[in-house]
Amino acid sequence: MKSLEVLIVDDEPAIRKVLAVHLTRSGFAVQEAASGGEALAYLSKGGIDVAISDIQMPDFSGIELVRRARSAGVETSFIMMTAHASVDTAIDAIKAGASDYMIKPVRNDEVLHRLMKVADLRRLSSENKVLRNLVLGSRDEMFGFVSSSMRDLDRLIAKVAPTDSTVLVTGESGTGKGVIARQIHQQSQRSDGPFIPVNCGAIPENLMESELFGHVKGSFTGADKARKGLFLEADKGTIFLDEIGELPLSLQVKLLHVIEEKTVRPVGSEQAKRADVRIVAATNRDLGQMVAEGRFREDLYFRLSVFHVHVPPLRERRQDVPQLVRFLLSRGAKRMNHGTELSMEPEVEAILSAYDWPGNVREMENVIDRALILADEGRITTADLPPQIARIIPPAEAGAAAPASGNGLRDQVRRFECSVILKAIADNNGDRRTAAQKLGIGLSSLYRKMEEYEVLGLLKNGQMVVD
């Protein structure tokens, strides 16, 4: 608390001096201003944590000072003082952005108490920002796509994010619909508010209404205390309803009411509560087809799809794959505290670019993480890839390969490598650890290569298959 920089704003010198002396003795760094204009000059320089300001001043009011400071992006907290005990004035001050309010004459102990409250609020706000960055990731960690379809998607997000429009995000599993939802929230005016993700397919149907809208104590068996619900938790922020196609029809009616009325009614309550929430929904299902089949309400579908964005699968935007692989590799290395410098065999990059990625970005991230764990001395080889991916033939080699005869360059290299490994194992009386050491590879790499050869049909029961 003693590190707070405090500005006292009052046109009466005696009041300023008394407060300044008391706060200085209490360990605060104190500045003084005799008018709104002088105060605004101090505030625009930055560094002031809290301003204790009179409301009635000769040039313009303390409430106007708060408004001008907020418009200029000043994050200083305001405690207002007035000699007029007016509720309307207090409300105006709070609406303008003030944190607290005191009636003159103010007592020194009361001022200290109010400053402690503001200090606690500022500390919590700072901690929340740190936690949000940990949960959502900073903007610097966002991947910059190169494909035209994803650049078009970025432009759509930039258009819709500043609005409060409901957004429906569609796309196959693993395409990153949750990342898009977070991006919309981060670029919105609600970015300082909560972002609450909800997996509609993971909540049991009998608990879903309570989870979403809350309940009052005693509303059902086991409701031993009241619960706010996720919509009220997301107040002033964004709620992300993932897998919205899994929402039961009975809940679809209530969600439609929330969208239209901006209120929620907890289970067991007769009173509706206002919920200032932006809704972003996502699905990998065809909601239009579900509407035609009577499994999804048409009116809710229209409400959710006010603004619709579709995330294309990776196989339709292969231009993104090489850079996305490097991005996930770098991020994964940081997350796993990979100390060594990483490299990747050119053949690995070619294979990853040729693969169709049916699981999209999620599958790619899993494959990269697996390779990071298995890589020896920081170098990722084909042996570090799952067998079903390692056997992919890159387009550059496809024409030269001769699968039917097995005489393609890549096939011959694999056969030669397999024979060298088998000979090393035989020369060391079946001791695979010693064989790996003699070959200059890790034991795990040797096992992975043999597993790959078995999948490819080059090995069977530890013996090389002869055509």
UniProtKB/TrEMBL annotation:
Single GO molecular function: ATP binding
Chain ranges of the Response regulatory domain: 5-119
Domain of life: Bacteria
Keywords: ATP-binding, Nucleotide-binding, Phosphoprotein, Transcription, Transcription regulation
GO biological process, one term: regulation of DNA-templated transcription
Gene3D superfamilies assigned to the protein according to its UniProt record, in alphabetical order: 1.10.8.60, 3.40.50.2300, Homeodomain-like (1.10.10.60), P-loop containing nucleotide triphosphate hydrolases (3.40.50.300)
Domain Sigma-54 factor interaction: 147-373
Keyword Transit peptide: no
PROSITE patterns: RESPONSE_REGULATORY (PS50110), SIGMA54_INTERACT_1 (PS00675), SIGMA54_INTERACT_2 (PS00676), SIGMA54_INTERACT_4 (PS50045)
Residues the record lists as 4-aspartylphosphate modifications: D54
InterPro entries noted in UniProt: AAA+_ATPase (IPR003593), AAA_lid_NorR (IPR058031), CheY-like_superfamily (IPR011006), Homeodomain-like_sf (IPR009057), HTH_Fis (IPR002197), P-loop_NTPase (IPR027417), Sig_transdc_resp-reg_receiver (IPR001789), Sigma_54_int (IPR002078)
Protein name: Sigma-54-dependent Fis family transcriptional regulator
Protein source organism: Noviherbaspirillum galbum
Lineage: Bacteria, Pseudomonadati, Pseudomonadota, Betaproteobacteria, Burkholderiales
